[in-house]
Amino acid sequence: xxxxxxxxxxxxxxxxxxxxxxxxxxxxxxxxxxxxxxxxxxxxxxxxxxxxxxxxxxxxxxxxxxxxxxxxxxxxxxxxxxxxxxxxxxxxxxxxxxxxxxxxxxxxxxxxxxxxxxxxxxxxxxxxxxxxxxxxxxxxxxxxxxxxxxxxxxxxxxxxxxxxxxxxxxxxxxxxxxxxxxxxxxxxxxxxxxxxxxxxxxxxxxxxxxxxxxxxxxxxxxxxxxxxxxxxxxxxxxxxxxxxxxxxxxxxxxxxxxxxxxxxxxxxxxxxxxxxxxxxxxxxxxxxxxxxxxxxxxxxxxxxxxxxxxxxxxxxxxxxxxxxxxxxxxxxxxxxxxxxxxxxxxxxxxxxxxxxxxxxxxxxxxxxxxxxxxxxxxxxxxxxxxxxxxxxxxxxxxxxxxxxxxxxxxxxxxxxxxxxxxxxxxxxxxxxxxxxxxxxxxxxxxxxxxxxxxxxxxxxxxxxxxxxxxxxxxxxxxxxxxxxxxxxxxxxxxxxxxxxxxxxxxxxxxxxxxxxxxxxxxxxxxxxxxxxxxxxxxxxxxxxxxxxxxxxxxxxxxxxx
Length: 561
What we know:
The protein is α+β, with helices and mostly antiparallel strands. The protein folds into three domains: 23-109 and 383-421, no CATH class; 116-379, Rossmann fold; 449-554, Immunoglobulin-like, CATH 2.60.40. Helices cover 25% and strands 29% of the residues. It contains twelve helices and 23 strands. Helix 2 packs antiparallel against helix 3 and helix 5 crosses helix 6. The longest helix is centred in the middle third of the chain and has 19 residues, at 250-268. The radius of gyration is 25 Å and the shape is globular.
């Protein structure tokens, strides 16, 4: 049997999560007042990834916990957790710079914080040839450079489709490889997208493909955010007119790109540690954003770019930096393109600014992807993890972090800070959806530690209309804090590949649940196979959740008689 859906989901679903802490180390102080949970202060273990290099850019791998000092919001904190991740150095006498890619023996200690990568395919600013090379580069990275503990997700962007999540952060590298390998060959349906569409249909009764305000994928956001750039006050959001405008006005396309990446960064801000985004793109044309200034300042010629687009792009860079997203850009533009056109009309300078502002690195000529991937491995393979306890308030505030190393002549690169969690009632629509997806697909949700309950299979009616019947045995006294007020009960069935096969949803009140002897039953008609069932109860006012599940096998039906 293949891995079930919850085991495949992993940490991308935490990108709008409430905390950047280890749930097992969280001591929650919750008070119930007027049937609503009030989150006051939690004691949380903060984890910080730190990269330390010498003046030549080579990683320094022999530091100890005592060599570090960490300041949170200007106050020094005691480091209670420490972990070191290294790659072996090359043999002496070689001229190779950096670290070799040979794996060291496994560390005996636990892995506090693995590396996190997102493979990001830009279908909007790219060419067919560039996309083929991007696919080769990504497969090479998956096959030869990933460690077993690395978590990888897959994203893509296109002009009219927006931002798609194909695979959430997961250590199931084979699943990631299957997704990347399928690009250009068949239509994919990401598991997160698949779950959302079924949930949206259950809530609204609409086909999500027809609901333009919702969008088909998690991070796309409502299309009403697309501006008219001040060109036409009668801007219409219809698909046909948007298609025409994307073709006629490149600024609109570029604004949409910047807005979607800004949304991505805001969602990623709650994932602990560094998020390495490997971007395969030829870049937004630099002149589109910043213009091409004429020599000697002659204002009669040249342009100074688009001020609105420039502001959106700068906002995007700020959000990426605040979310600790490091961009490694592999330029998919044809290597000889600069000989045929003005470099400032290409995306090379834009990609370089994107990588410089986020602390990453730009790599030209996608044909040399093996060298580029090796360099990314060297830059991300050696790091330290520092952990320290803090008291958090649920206010969503930003906490700046500063890390110092006692050894001289070192350059320290660490995340610039983190965001406090915020109350569920302050979540936007996107964050509420991701909150549900985290409960549905994650074995160890980072939003919270849900209450567990039992789900059992029960006999189905003899008429054959359904062949899977489940019943959630809810200990009402145990989940009393969850069922105060309005709640939703979502029953999900995943196949062996982790795809959502069916979803059923009900809304109940605490009064209704307390009167029901069997709080929740669900029935399904499924093809023969093995499935993972999961039932989620979520308070729609506080976000508190309870989860139960079981694995079932549907046999072939025997012929009558």
